[in-house]
Design brief:
alpha/beta, 7-stranded mixed beta sheet
């Protein structure tokens, strides 16, 4: 059997139980059907039915939130070393089931095997990293002042809601859930309706690893009912969300009445700036990787190429040749570099922007057309001769690269900052002074110089402007999931004003 045939056979085995029983919620350790009935999830590979999925309502969310509230005191009080042991067991189980997770995610989202085969292992790293921080998560500082000693400590904020997207959903779920659990919070997780499979696998893994009932609860459904009920629920103290900027704005409004703390990782229209003095071959590799890997469906994708005029013609020629050579195909085929888009909704959006780009006067140098006869496959798309004000240069769409030329450093910076977003940026130059000055002035939460996105877990992750609120990663995650308390001790008998004496 070929690698593709072998993986399809393995996938069929893993999906059999979902075809028979569907995907149900997990609330307080129990499998619970959604009170709103069920909806269908289909594979973007061929639009075939995967299974039915519970559709949750406010009633289900209320039950999950109450379960998380009831489980919170004991989980928060558990010694950090015990939480560490449980979370390491979760990581071990993720590694043991990495192939199953990858197969299901490829079929559910259309992501290529070459990336998903490693994504589960990265998710295990997330759990291990935060597991190791659990014993010291509450630690604070000792701050002295004249006649006074201040002692700070952190306490878990309480039950939290985690709403995750359909792009690399398993890894991104662990990115949010692992630090929440390590901090001592309990969680209600609502995955995206387009990609519910691996969220169910994660909930099973956590339960089997010994996570107490009610500590992690899973509710499936749509944003307008389950999502809204979660963001408005008074027992949920914070919402961690990954998704579109418009949805983040709605969540902020919905959580306002209960003064929800929010962490948003939102959209991006991220620039990759290539100067004439850069290592152009490495820059070319990075430009292509950061827009077309993971089907371009990533918030940190470098969807705007800013290339210096003096090298633009040569760079575009090489870029076009490489983009036309990208292998589009079945996500479980090891040769595939780009699979199908997640859903017809997203496919239609991408194709509409192809027409928008052409109507605005940009040149479609590659792609911009459907690949194959079934599924939601689009040939990797490249537009050149764009200007900064075109919609294809301002609005988030993927996998779709828009190239703009610039004369000098000042113009490059002006174009790079001239969007509503500010998640990430990529700078290619061998001029150290330019790199330092440019990165300091670039409006982005994360910047990589002479590199693609290489994530180091202890570093902060997040954006500015319409790209997000708050930071993930390292201790920054605990700042979100925990409250800081200060206790002040007098070190002597200082004079106190006597009123009314």
């Amino acid at each position: 059997m070929s690698d593709l045939a072998t993986r399809l056979a393995q996938l069929d085995t893993h999906l059999a139980r979902f075809r028979d029983g569907g995907i149900v919620n997990l609330i307080n350790g129990q499998d619970v059907p959604g009170s709103g009935g069920a909806f269908e999830t289909r594979s973007p590979v061929d639009d075939s039915l995967i299974c039915s999925v519970s559709r949750s309502t406010a009633e289900d969310v209320d039950a999950a939130a109450k379960a998380a509230k009831a489980a919170f005191p004991a989980w928060a009080a558990m010694d950090g070393k015990e939480r560490k042991k449980i979370l390491h067991r979760v990581a071990d189980a993720i590694v043991d089931r990495a192939e199953e997770i990858a197969l299901c995610e490829c079929w559910d989202t259309g992501q290529a095997w070459r990336f998903m085969s490693k994504a589960a292992l990265r998710a295990a790293e997330n759990f291990r990293f935060f597991a190791d921080q659990a014993p010291t998560a509450r630690d604070g500082q000792t701050l002295f002042a004249p006649g006074q000693m201040n002692v700070t400590a952190r306490h878990p904020i309480g039950p939290v809601g985690v709403i995750t997207p359909w792009n690399t959903p398993f890894m991104l779920s662990t990115w949010k859930i692992a630090p929440a659990l390590a901090a001592g919070c309990t969680v209600v997780h609502k995955p995206a309706e387009f990609s519910p499979l691996t969220a169910r696998l994660l909930s099973e893994i956590c339960r089997e690893a010994g996570l107490p009932d009610g500590v992690l609860n899973l509710v499936n459904g749509f944003g307008e009912d389950a999502g809204r009920a979660l963001t408005e629920h008074p027992d949920i103290k914070a919402i961690a969300f990954v998704g579109e900027s418009k949805t983040g704005s709605m969540i902020m409004k919905q959580g306002a009445d209960t003064l929800k703390r929010v962490h948003f990782e939102l959209g991006g229209k991220n620039p990759v700036i290539v100067f004439e003095d850069a290592d152009l071959e490495r820059a070319l590799d990075a430009v292509i990787f950061m827009i077309y890997s993971l089907n371009g469906e990533r918030c940190t994708s470098s969807s705007r190429l800013l290339v210096q005029e003096s090298i633009a013609a040569e760079f575009h020629d090489k870029l076009e040749a490489r983009v036309r050579n990208i292998r589009v195909g079945h996500p479980l085929d090891p040769a595939t570099e780009v699979g199908p888009l997640i859903h017809k909704v997203h496919y239609d959006k991408v194709m509409s922007y192809v027409e928008i780009g052409k109507s605005e006067g940009a040149t479609c140098r590659a792609g911009g057309a459907r690949a194959g006869e079934e599924g939601w496959f689009v040939k990797p798309t490249l537009f050149t001769d764009a200007t900064r004000n075109m919609r294809i240069a301002q609005e988030e769409v993927c996998p779709f690269l828009t190239s703009i030329t610039f004369k000098d450093e000042a113009e490059a910076l002006d174009i790079a900052n001239d969007v509503a977003y500010g998640l990430s940026g990529y700078l290619w130059t061998n001029d150290l002074t330019r790199a330092l000055n440019f990165s300091d002035k670039l409006e982005a939460g994360m910047i990589w110089v002479n590199s693609e996105n290489v994530r180091h877990l202890p570093t902060p992750f997040g954006g500015v402007k319409a790209s997000g609120v708050g930071r993930d990663g390292g201790d920054w995650s605990f700042d979100f999931y925990m409250e800081t308390k200060n206790t002040s001790f007098a070190l002597g008998s200082h004079k106190i004003q006597r009123l009314g004496a």
